[in-house]
Design a protein that fits this description.
The chain has a domain at about 40-75 and about 95-150 and about 160-185: Sandwich (Immunoglobulin-like). The protein is about 5% helix and about 35% strand. The chain has 1 helix and 11 strands. The chain is globular and about 55 Å long.
Length: about 190
């Protein structure tokens, strides 16, 4: 006598209870635009389209501050030009969004700051502050942006992004050490 297990399995499936809870929905909204923009270094900044080089110079550890208030020591001005050759009609602003985790990282001692690139001979206890035109540190851990109006002419647009960068103590000054103080900070542009 042959026994088929398929009918038995179907019979057991009829007695199985499934629990299902509806906890919520995530809705994504947005718009894709055909804007073609290039970021280039402005006055006082080196590099080329999309690759900005900021020379922070040689700074004495004793000249660094904790970055509280408006005391940032020797800050380096960064001027960037945004040129949108097409597709900018109807837009009014540009936002520079930073992605420190894809670069040097967020400083673990002060999450407002960009982490210095680690390695042999690297400085410690120091990070890089990005400072907006209101003299406020852009928090690397809070998705804050640098914003500028987009000046439209027909289908093209231009903007000037302005900020400063400064070395800032991220730990007690007794814990900071001298050394190479390089970092990388990827960015993207968002248009509104």
């Amino acid at each position: 006598m042959k026994i088929s297990i398929l009918p038995a399995a179907l019979l057991l499936a009829g007695f199985t209870t499934f629990a299902h809870a509806n906890s919520g929905v995530i809705t994504f909204t947005g718009e894709l635009v055909a804007t073609s923009c290039v970021v280039t270094p402005g006055a006082g900044v080196g590099g080329g389209a999309g690759n900005i080089n900021v020379n922070m110079g040689t700074v004495a550890l004793s000249d660094l501050s904790q970055g509280n208030g408006s005391d940032f020591g020797a800050a380096t001005q960064i001027n960037l030009d945004v040129d949108c050759s097409s597709g900018a009609g109807g837009l009014s602003s540009v936002k520079m969004i930073f992605d420190p985790r894809s670069g040097s990282g967020v400083n673990p001692d002060d999450t407002r700051l960009l982490q210095l690139s680690p390695g042999a001979g690297a400085a410690t206890g120091v990070g890089i502050a990005i400072i907006n035109d209101n003299n406020k540190i852009i928090n690397m851990n809070a998705n804050e942006t640098i914003d500028a109006p987009l000046v439209i002419s027909g289908d093209t647009g231009k903007a000037e992004l302005s900020m400063r960068a400064a070395y800032v103590l991220s730990a007690a000054s007794a814990q900071a050490t001298v050394g190479v103080a390089n970092a990388t900070l990827p960015f993207t542009l968002k248009y509104e």
